[in-house]
Design goal:
single chain; mainly alpha
Length: about 150
């Protein structure tokens, strides 16, 4: 599987229990999605009275969520070392694609289809999870075999 950590990278404690990196990726992704959803809920509550408050909440939650997700994926799933800034840039670029999808879909679902912002976010997560998996697996934390 491309995007796997180098052979000399020891598996983490969760990998000893789960034994399948794809399942671990999905488990961490589920936790990360819940964390991101909670951030969005918090910021939606904080900014709900502002015009476009749900979009302001989206932007602020995105920034905080990406940093949380980077730490989780880097240390729990991919267990890579070095190249922190390069990895963060790549990781952020994958999330930028997901964020762009979110920026387009959220107003359509909320303003045009009149779906509550929290329900709309749940629907959008399905699409962005696929984008995230492919991007992080093959790009964000990709290392050549034998590289640290």
């Amino acid at each position: 599987m491309s995007g796997m950590p180098p052979a000399d990278s020891p598996p983490g404690p969760l990998m000893k229990i789960v034994k399948d990196k794809r399942v671990l990726f999905l488990a961490v992704g589920a936790a990360n999605t819940l964390i991101g959803f909670l951030w969005y809920t918090l910021f939606l509550w904080l900014f709900h009275s502002l015009p476009g408050g749900y979009m302001i909440a989206l932007v602020v939650a995105q920034i905080v969520s990406v940093l949380c997700a980077f730490v989780l994926y880097r240390h729990i799933v991919f267990r890579v070392k070095g190249h922190v800034w390069r990895d963060l840039l790549r990781f952020s670029s994958v999330y930028a694609v997901s964020f762009a999808i979110n920026l387009v879909m959220l107003p359509v679902l909320v303003e045009v289809l009149h779906i509550h912002p929290l329900v709309a976010q749940i629907a959008i997560v399905t699409v962005t999870t696929i984008v995230s998996y492919v991007g992080h697996n093959y790009f964000s934390f990709h290392r050549k075999r034998g590289a640290s």
